[in-house]
Write a structure and sequence with these properties.
With 115 residues, the chain is an alpha+beta fold. The protein is built from two helices and nine strands; from the N terminus they run βββββββββαα.
């Protein structure tokens, strides 16, 4: 939770609202069951038909979840601009600090965007 109060919601394009004091983050969750080829995980980080990349109109942060190893990598949505898929190597996704490190990086990008 990293100091935030997350709430699962059922809304178009958003899966979780994370609140801390007056700050609210809209999080979209993408998941995959296992690594694609034994070397990497891959997520569809897009929306609609025809597919289009996510934007700040959709969410603030995208949470890419690897269900088999119970790990999450967070990305500010602008970090995924122009991407329909996101791939992460298994060894990087398995890192002990993946959640804390990518959450902090996403928050920094969110603050940069708000300034």
């Amino acid at each position: 939770m990293f100091g935030w109060n997350p709430t699962i919601i059922d809304a178009e394009g958003m899966d979780v609202l994370a609140v801390r004091n007056q700050d609210v983050l809209r999080i979209q969750v993408k998941s995959t069951k296992k690594s694609l080829d034994g070397y990497s995980y891959q997520w569809q980080v897009c929306k609609s038909n025809p597919k289009r990349s996510l934007s700040t109109d959709d969410c603030d942060i995208v949470a890419c979840v690897a269900l088999d190893i119970r790990k999450i990598a967070f990305f500010h949505v602008n970090h995924l601009r122009e991407q329909l898929t996101r791939r992460i190597l298994v060894n990087k996704m398995s890192a002990d600090d993946i959640e804390a490190r990518t959450w902090e990086e996403s928050l920094e990008k969110t603050q940069d965007f708000l300034r």
